[in-house]
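In the design runs reported in the main text, the only information available to the sequence generator was the tokenized backbone. The following block is the verbatim input for one such run; it is reproduced so that readers can re-run the procedure and compare outputs position by position.
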């Protein structure tokens, strides 16, 4: 086959053997109607009424979709609703109020349960306090909290009074916080004294103080006293203690403010490994409908379930699938403050076992770590409560996918869900009660969503060939714009593949992918992770997938080293599973695997073994940093990494 689109690919992405959902799962699945795709298709966009219909509206919407000002779409216009009412109040009826809403697991074994009634009380009291502090409707409130119950409480309290929240991941620096508050015009902050990091009390308030010093506006600040005597702090001007406020407003209730479906629910700055962070704007009706629907249809969540998404609420996954989706459905959502390896590497399985978790959702980076640590950890607990597993955030190759399904799930279905901060909710995935699962492929576009993989000209690529992943129709959870303006929103996401003349609007995801005959999409990586070697464009993630398919390999990151003489050479950084020494045999197996999957053109020039790969706090491998190292560039600030110490090791390794 010729190489028409210059991607250097002439064969389909190798996928593992497919799996059918087990009968026992199908029998109880939320969605089993095999004609659901056609039904959504025939009735688009009204099909989305089904998602909106699961919510409680104060006023019904007039239209499902308004596209007159595309790509600035409006969903469920005219409708009014409140997200906090939908996630809390409406579950208080009958016997549901004593049902657990949040089960919190602290770092050192502390535990707290908030029933829906407890959550209602906490959200109302904080909402009343925020009002008293002059937070008005549409004021942006920044929340800078670790994974403690006060984080979702604060989000819901903001939602209750119609104040958009702007959650900044607790591990980000003072500068990052200040930049986000400044960009979001935010004059209110909710933070805490500190939290435990690797056993030590870490001073979060110190970071918040530094951020406030660099901001021009006076920032009213609520401080949660999380560590008590372990980290004494004093409150300054404009600072209020969370627990004192709760006491002062004890028993107070605040009527949920009816928000227009198109009013902003929150802002989320994407972590972006380069460039200015983008303030992604999400609105109330469409977002909530989309996250509730996908929690029901893809994650199969039921009100009586105990559901656990082991992400951080500081990123979009936690917003959509720890807080809004599960709580809109009235289920029990587990929140975990700690890390998977403390006090031991079976920590997550101990939590699954003790809470009898039904559905578990995590990221491939975690799954690869579990695999590296060994199957004895999940095997030492009773995980038979698990009915469904999910993954999100990065491509997952067949080997870790199968390991996860077998060693953690005992053969239960696995949904690989593709979506983004900008899409708000899931876009590509199998429906676990209906679809065949193909390890290595995220899946087809969900009902009501249309995805196309296209070449530079926007023409569909042939099955198995790589191209750009685009979405050809609007969807309810979509970002409405970027906070700093519609222009950047249009330019980054819509202009690359749209034709405004003909009204053909297409969203560009920034990802490359391939699609098979059945419409299953395998995401290959970001466009910025493509390297060109000998005139052929290769996806670094595709090479990485071939490398991680080698027994004994835990993780890999592939980057390009460019020189005038050699052109671009491929450097592969590889970490091995516990018990596997980095040997020449593994090196040879890597070369064979890459050669077999892609071709000799993709053979790494250098394979560098390292105990760990540098990662962002959200767990994404920092390829750009490795790229800078191999190219001898000056390194960017590495303090935002999860494991900054590894950079020194990798650099020293290179100098030797
Ligand atoms: C990647 C996280 C492959 C992709 C929800 C996307 C994935 C970016 C998958 C968004 C998946 C997410 N398979 N790649 N299942 N899910 N990605 O904004 O490159 O933090 O563009 O949202 O993660 O990351 P974000």
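Verbatim output:
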């Amino acid at each position: 086959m010729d190489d028409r689109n210059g991607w250097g690919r002439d064969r389909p992405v190798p996928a593992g053997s497919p799996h059918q959902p087990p009968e026992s799962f199908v029998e109880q699945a939320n969605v089993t109607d095999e004609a659901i795709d056609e039904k959504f298709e025939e009735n688009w966009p009204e099909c989305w009424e089904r998602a909106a219909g699961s919510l409680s509206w104060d006023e019904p919407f007039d239209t499902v979709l308004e596209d007159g000002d595309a790509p600035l779409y409006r969903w469920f216009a005219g409708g009014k609703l409140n997200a906090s009412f939908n996630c809390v109040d409406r579950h208080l009826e009958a016997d549901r109020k004593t049902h657990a809403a949040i089960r919190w697991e602290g770092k050192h074994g502390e535990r707290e349960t908030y029933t829906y009634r407890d959550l209602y009380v906490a959200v109302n009291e904080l909402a009343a306090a925020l009002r008293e502090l002059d937070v008005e409707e549409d004021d942006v409130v920044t929340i800078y909290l670790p994974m403690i119950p006060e984080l979702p409480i604060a989000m819901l309290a903001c939602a209750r009074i119609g104040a958009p929240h702007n959650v900044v991941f607790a591990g980000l620096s003072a500068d990052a916080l200040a930049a986000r508050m400044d960009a979001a015009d935010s004059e209110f902050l909710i933070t805490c004294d500190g939290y435990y990091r690797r056993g030590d009390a870490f001073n979060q308030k110190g970071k918040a103080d530094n951020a406030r010093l660099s901001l021009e506006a006076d920032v009213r600040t609520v401080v949660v006293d999380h560590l008590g005597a372990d980290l004494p702090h004093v409150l300054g001007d404009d600072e209020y203690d969370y627990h004192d406020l709760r006491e002062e407003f004890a028993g107070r209730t605040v009527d949920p403010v009816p928000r227009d479906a198109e009013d902003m629910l929150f802002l989320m700055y994407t972590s972006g490994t380069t460039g200015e962070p983008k303030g992604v704007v999400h609105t109330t009706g469409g977002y909530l409908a989309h996250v509730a629907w996908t929690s029901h249809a893809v994650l199969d969540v039921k009100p009586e379930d105990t559901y656990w998404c082991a992400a951080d609420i500081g990123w979009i996954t936690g917003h959509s699938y720890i807080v809004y989706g599960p709580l809109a459905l009235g289920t029990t959502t587990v929140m975990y403050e700690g890390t998977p390896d403390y006090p031991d590497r079976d920590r997550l399985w101990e939590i699954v076992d003790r809470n009898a978790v039904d559905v578990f959702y995590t990221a491939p980076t975690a799954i690869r770590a579990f695999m590296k640590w060994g199957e004895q950890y999940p095997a030492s607990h009773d995980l038979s409560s698990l009915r469904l597993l999910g993954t999100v955030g990065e491509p997952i190759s067949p080997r870790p996918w199968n390991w996860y399904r077998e060693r953690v799930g005992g053969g239960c279905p696995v949904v690989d869900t593709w979506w983004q901060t900008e899409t708000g909710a899931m876009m590509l995935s199998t429906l676990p009660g209906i679809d065949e699962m193909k390890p290595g492929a995220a899946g087809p576009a969900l009902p009501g969503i249309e995805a196309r993989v296209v070449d530079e000209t926007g023409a569909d690529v042939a099955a198995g060939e790589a191209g750009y992943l685009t979405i050809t129709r609007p969807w309810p959870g979509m970002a409405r714009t970027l906070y700093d303006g519609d222009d950047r929103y249009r330019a980054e996401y819509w202009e690359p593949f749209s034709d405004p003349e003909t009204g053909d609007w297409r969203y560009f995801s920034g990802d490359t992918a391939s699609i098979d005959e059945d419409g299953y999409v395998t995401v290959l990586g970001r466009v910025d992770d493509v390297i060109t070697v000998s005139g052929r464009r290769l996806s670094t993630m595709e090479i990485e997938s071939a490398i991680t398919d080698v027994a004994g390999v835990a993780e890999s990151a592939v980057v390009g080293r460019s020189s005038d003489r050699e052109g671009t050479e491929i450097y592969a950084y590889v970490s091995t599973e516990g018990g596997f020494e980095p040997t020449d045999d593994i090196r040879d197996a890597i070369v064979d695997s890459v050669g077999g999957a892609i071709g000799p053109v993709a053979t790494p020039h250098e394979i560098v073994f390292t105990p760990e790969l540098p990662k962002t706090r959200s767990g994404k491998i920092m390829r750009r940093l490795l790229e800078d190292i191999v190219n001898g560039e000056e390194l960017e600030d590495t303090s935002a990494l999860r494991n900054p110490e590894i950079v020194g090791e990798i650099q020293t390794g290179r100098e030797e």
